[in-house]
Amino acid sequence: MTVFFIGAGPGAADLITVRGRDLLARCEVCLYPGSLTPPDLLAHCPADARRIDTADLSLDQIVGELVAADRAGHDVARLCSGDPSIYSAVAEQMRRLDAAGVPYQVVPGVPAFAAAAAELGRELTVPTIGQSLVITRVQARSTAMPEGETLANFAATGTTLAVHLAINRIEQVVEELLPHYGADCPVAVVHCASQPGQRILRGILSRIAQEVRAAGIDRAAVIFVGRVLGAEKFPDSYLYSAARDRSDKLRPR
Questions:
Q1: pTM of the model
Q2: Biggest CA pair distance of the chain
Q3: Which residues does 128 contact at the CB level (< 8 Å), separation at least 6?
Q4: What CATH number belongs to 112-230?
Q5: In which pathway does it act (predicted)?
Q6: Average pLDDT score over the chain
Q7: Superfamily name and number for 3-107
Q8: Residue 251 pLDDT more than 80?
Q9: CA 199 to chain centre
Q10: How many Cβ atoms from other residues are within 10 Å of residue 96's Cβ?
Q11: Is the Cβ–Cβ distance between 212 and 178 less than 8 Å?
Q12: C-beta separation of 30 from 50 below 8 A
Protein backbone atom coordinates (compact mmCIF):
# COMPACT_ATOMS: atom_id res chain seq x y z
CA MET A 1 0.00 0.00 0.00
CA THR A 2 1.06 3.65 -0.30
CA VAL A 3 1.26 6.79 1.81
CA PHE A 4 0.37 9.86 -0.25
CA PHE A 5 1.77 13.18 0.98
CA ILE A 6 -0.82 15.50 -0.54
CA GLY A 7 -0.48 19.25 -0.77
CA ALA A 8 -3.83 20.51 0.50
CA GLY A 9 -3.27 24.07 -0.67
CA PRO A 10 -3.29 27.35 1.27
CA GLY A 11 -6.72 27.01 2.85
CA ALA A 12 -9.54 27.16 0.31
CA ALA A 13 -10.95 23.66 -0.15
CA ASP A 14 -11.17 24.04 -3.93
CA LEU A 15 -7.46 24.82 -4.30
CA ILE A 16 -6.44 21.19 -3.88
CA THR A 17 -5.35 19.61 -7.16
CA VAL A 18 -7.60 17.18 -9.00
CA ARG A 19 -5.03 14.44 -8.38
CA GLY A 20 -4.95 15.21 -4.68
CA ARG A 21 -8.74 15.25 -4.42
CA ASP A 22 -9.07 11.94 -6.25
CA LEU A 23 -6.46 10.25 -4.05
CA LEU A 24 -8.12 11.62 -0.93
CA ALA A 25 -11.41 10.10 -2.09
CA ARG A 26 -9.93 6.61 -2.27
CA CYS A 27 -7.75 6.42 0.85
CA GLU A 28 -9.07 4.50 3.82
CA VAL A 29 -7.02 6.57 6.28
CA CYS A 30 -6.46 10.33 6.30
CA LEU A 31 -4.07 12.27 8.53
CA TYR A 32 -4.64 16.03 8.43
CA PRO A 33 -3.20 19.11 10.19
CA GLY A 34 -6.01 20.19 12.49
CA SER A 35 -7.24 23.75 12.14
CA LEU A 36 -5.28 24.22 8.90
CA THR A 37 -7.58 21.83 7.02
CA PRO A 38 -11.02 23.13 5.94
CA PRO A 39 -13.94 20.77 6.71
CA ASP A 40 -15.04 20.90 3.08
CA LEU A 41 -11.77 19.28 2.09
CA LEU A 42 -12.26 16.33 4.44
CA ALA A 43 -15.67 15.80 2.86
CA HIS A 44 -13.81 14.21 -0.08
CA CYS A 45 -12.73 11.32 2.17
CA PRO A 46 -14.68 8.06 1.91
CA ALA A 47 -17.58 8.03 4.36
CA ASP A 48 -15.99 5.25 6.40
CA ALA A 49 -12.42 6.58 6.27
CA ARG A 50 -10.49 6.90 9.50
CA ARG A 51 -9.66 10.59 10.01
CA ILE A 52 -6.77 11.49 12.32
CA ASP A 53 -6.04 15.07 13.42
CA THR A 54 -2.25 15.39 13.79
CA ALA A 55 -2.32 18.75 15.61
CA ASP A 56 -1.49 17.21 19.00
CA LEU A 57 0.60 14.27 17.77
CA SER A 58 4.37 13.97 17.89
CA LEU A 59 6.42 12.96 14.87
CA ASP A 60 6.78 9.40 16.17
CA GLN A 61 3.02 9.14 16.73
CA ILE A 62 2.29 10.40 13.22
CA VAL A 63 4.72 7.97 11.61
CA GLY A 64 3.34 5.20 13.81
CA GLU A 65 -0.11 5.83 12.35
CA LEU A 66 1.27 5.82 8.80
CA VAL A 67 3.14 2.56 9.31
CA ALA A 68 0.22 0.88 11.09
CA ALA A 69 -2.16 1.81 8.27
CA ASP A 70 0.28 0.42 5.71
CA ARG A 71 0.69 -2.82 7.65
CA ALA A 72 -3.11 -3.13 7.75
CA GLY A 73 -3.24 -2.89 3.96
CA HIS A 74 -4.61 0.65 3.71
CA ASP A 75 -3.67 3.52 1.43
CA VAL A 76 -3.08 6.67 3.46
CA ALA A 77 -3.64 10.34 2.62
CA ARG A 78 -1.27 12.54 4.61
CA LEU A 79 -2.54 16.07 3.99
CA CYS A 80 0.02 18.88 4.16
CA SER A 81 -0.87 22.55 4.28
CA GLY A 82 0.21 24.34 1.10
CA ASP A 83 2.77 22.36 -0.88
CA PRO A 84 4.82 19.48 0.58
CA SER A 85 8.07 20.91 -0.78
CA ILE A 86 8.00 23.96 1.52
CA TYR A 87 7.91 24.03 5.33
CA SER A 88 5.88 20.83 5.52
CA ALA A 89 8.10 18.64 7.74
CA VAL A 90 7.63 15.73 5.33
CA ALA A 91 11.38 15.13 4.96
CA GLU A 92 11.67 13.52 8.41
CA GLN A 93 8.46 11.54 7.86
CA MET A 94 9.76 10.17 4.54
CA ARG A 95 13.09 9.29 6.15
CA ARG A 96 11.29 7.19 8.75
CA LEU A 97 9.05 5.57 6.15
CA ASP A 98 12.16 4.63 4.16
CA ALA A 99 13.56 2.92 7.26
CA ALA A 100 10.27 1.09 7.79
CA GLY A 101 10.04 -0.01 4.17
CA VAL A 102 6.77 1.87 3.58
CA PRO A 103 6.27 3.24 0.03
CA TYR A 104 5.10 6.80 -0.47
CA GLN A 105 4.40 9.36 -3.16
CA VAL A 106 4.30 13.15 -3.07
CA VAL A 107 1.44 15.11 -4.66
CA PRO A 108 2.13 18.83 -5.12
CA GLY A 109 -0.22 21.54 -3.94
CA VAL A 110 -0.68 25.30 -4.19
CA PRO A 111 1.87 26.95 -1.85
CA ALA A 112 0.83 29.85 0.36
CA PHE A 113 3.10 32.34 -1.39
CA ALA A 114 1.52 31.55 -4.78
CA ALA A 115 -2.00 31.94 -3.40
CA ALA A 116 -0.98 35.20 -1.75
CA ALA A 117 0.52 36.56 -4.97
CA ALA A 118 -2.68 35.64 -6.80
CA GLU A 119 -4.75 37.55 -4.26
CA LEU A 120 -2.47 40.54 -4.75
CA GLY A 121 -2.94 40.30 -8.50
CA ARG A 122 0.81 40.45 -9.00
CA GLU A 123 3.39 38.51 -10.97
CA LEU A 124 6.50 38.09 -8.86
CA THR A 125 8.90 38.08 -11.82
CA VAL A 126 8.70 41.27 -13.86
CA PRO A 127 11.01 42.01 -16.83
CA THR A 128 14.07 44.11 -15.87
CA ILE A 129 12.66 44.70 -12.35
CA GLY A 130 12.95 41.30 -10.71
CA GLN A 131 13.49 37.82 -12.07
CA SER A 132 14.14 35.91 -8.87
CA LEU A 133 12.22 35.03 -5.73
CA VAL A 134 13.66 33.98 -2.36
CA ILE A 135 11.31 32.05 -0.08
CA THR A 136 12.56 32.16 3.48
CA ARG A 137 11.63 32.61 7.14
CA VAL A 138 13.16 34.07 10.29
CA GLN A 139 14.43 32.40 13.44
CA ALA A 140 11.87 32.22 16.22
CA ARG A 141 10.97 29.18 18.34
CA SER A 142 11.47 26.92 15.34
CA THR A 143 14.53 25.03 14.09
CA ALA A 144 17.63 27.18 13.70
CA MET A 145 18.33 28.69 10.30
CA PRO A 146 21.43 27.44 8.45
CA GLU A 147 24.46 29.69 8.71
CA GLY A 148 24.44 32.25 5.94
CA GLU A 149 20.70 32.10 5.30
CA THR A 150 19.93 35.50 6.78
CA LEU A 151 17.51 38.17 5.63
CA ALA A 152 20.41 40.59 5.26
CA ASN A 153 22.31 38.22 2.97
CA PHE A 154 19.29 37.65 0.76
CA ALA A 155 18.41 41.34 0.78
CA ALA A 156 21.91 42.24 -0.41
CA THR A 157 20.99 40.74 -3.79
CA GLY A 158 17.94 43.01 -4.12
CA THR A 159 15.74 40.09 -5.08
CA THR A 160 12.06 39.80 -4.19
CA LEU A 161 11.45 38.13 -0.84
CA ALA A 162 8.53 35.99 0.30
CA VAL A 163 8.97 35.70 4.06
CA HIS A 164 6.98 33.00 5.84
CA LEU A 165 6.46 32.39 9.56
CA ALA A 166 7.73 35.86 10.44
CA ILE A 167 4.73 38.09 11.06
CA ASN A 168 5.39 38.13 14.82
CA ARG A 169 8.93 39.31 14.06
CA ILE A 170 7.85 42.06 11.66
CA GLU A 171 9.99 44.70 13.39
CA GLN A 172 13.05 42.47 13.05
CA VAL A 173 12.26 41.89 9.39
CA VAL A 174 12.00 45.62 8.72
CA GLU A 175 15.20 46.41 10.63
CA GLU A 176 17.24 43.88 8.66
CA LEU A 177 15.83 44.83 5.26
CA LEU A 178 15.75 48.64 5.44
CA PRO A 179 19.48 49.17 4.68
CA HIS A 180 19.16 47.13 1.48
CA TYR A 181 15.73 47.94 0.06
CA GLY A 182 15.19 51.47 1.34
CA ALA A 183 12.32 52.97 3.31
CA ASP A 184 10.05 53.38 0.28
CA CYS A 185 10.30 49.79 -0.99
CA PRO A 186 6.86 48.30 -1.66
CA VAL A 187 5.68 45.65 0.80
CA ALA A 188 2.56 43.50 0.98
CA VAL A 189 1.28 41.29 3.77
CA VAL A 190 -1.32 38.65 2.97
CA HIS A 191 -3.03 37.05 5.95
CA CYS A 192 -4.86 33.72 5.47
CA ALA A 193 -4.62 33.79 1.67
CA SER A 194 -7.69 32.28 -0.05
CA GLN A 195 -9.49 31.75 3.27
CA PRO A 196 -12.65 33.49 4.54
CA GLY A 197 -10.65 35.62 6.98
CA GLN A 198 -8.19 36.85 4.38
CA ARG A 199 -6.75 40.34 4.82
CA ILE A 200 -4.27 42.24 2.67
CA LEU A 201 -2.02 45.12 3.69
CA ARG A 202 -0.09 47.10 1.09
CA GLY A 203 2.47 49.68 2.07
CA ILE A 204 6.14 50.58 2.23
CA LEU A 205 8.90 49.00 4.26
CA SER A 206 9.31 51.83 6.76
CA ARG A 207 5.64 51.75 7.80
CA ILE A 208 4.53 48.15 7.44
CA ALA A 209 5.35 47.06 11.01
CA GLN A 210 3.02 49.67 12.50
CA GLU A 211 0.28 48.75 10.04
CA VAL A 212 0.58 45.05 10.86
CA ARG A 213 0.35 45.73 14.58
CA ALA A 214 -2.60 48.07 14.10
CA ALA A 215 -4.41 45.41 12.07
CA GLY A 216 -3.79 42.78 14.74
CA ILE A 217 -2.30 40.29 12.27
CA ASP A 218 -0.23 37.79 14.24
CA ARG A 219 -0.31 34.50 12.34
CA ALA A 220 -0.72 32.78 8.96
CA ALA A 221 0.73 35.61 6.88
CA VAL A 222 3.20 35.91 4.01
CA ILE A 223 5.32 39.07 3.80
CA PHE A 224 6.42 40.16 0.32
CA VAL A 225 9.19 42.71 -0.14
CA GLY A 226 10.46 43.95 -3.49
CA ARG A 227 10.20 46.50 -6.27
CA VAL A 228 8.11 44.13 -8.40
CA LEU A 229 5.16 44.87 -6.11
CA GLY A 230 4.94 48.42 -7.43
CA ALA A 231 6.34 47.95 -10.91
CA GLU A 232 4.44 49.75 -13.67
CA LYS A 233 6.92 50.96 -16.26
CA PHE A 234 8.71 47.87 -17.54
CA PRO A 235 9.25 46.35 -20.99
CA ASP A 236 7.06 43.55 -22.28
CA SER A 237 8.44 40.07 -21.87
CA TYR A 238 10.36 38.65 -24.82
CA LEU A 239 8.23 35.52 -24.51
CA TYR A 240 5.45 36.87 -26.73
CA SER A 241 7.36 39.56 -28.58
CA ALA A 242 6.53 39.95 -32.27
CA ALA A 243 10.28 40.34 -32.85
CA ARG A 244 11.03 36.90 -31.49
CA ASP A 245 12.21 34.31 -34.02
CA ARG A 246 9.82 31.38 -33.71
CA SER A 247 11.21 29.37 -36.61
CA ASP A 248 13.13 27.10 -34.25
CA LYS A 249 10.18 26.17 -32.04
CA LEU A 250 9.71 22.51 -31.26
CA ARG A 251 7.22 20.78 -33.50
CA PRO A 252 5.19 17.66 -32.71
CA ARG A 253 6.72 14.50 -34.10
A1: 0.92
A2: 61
A3: 234, 235
A4: 3.30.950.10
A5: Cofactor biosynthesis; adenosylcobalamin biosynthesis
A6: 94
A7: Tetrapyrrole methylase, N-terminal domain (3.40.1010.10)
A8: no
A9: 17
A10: 16
A11: no
A12: yes
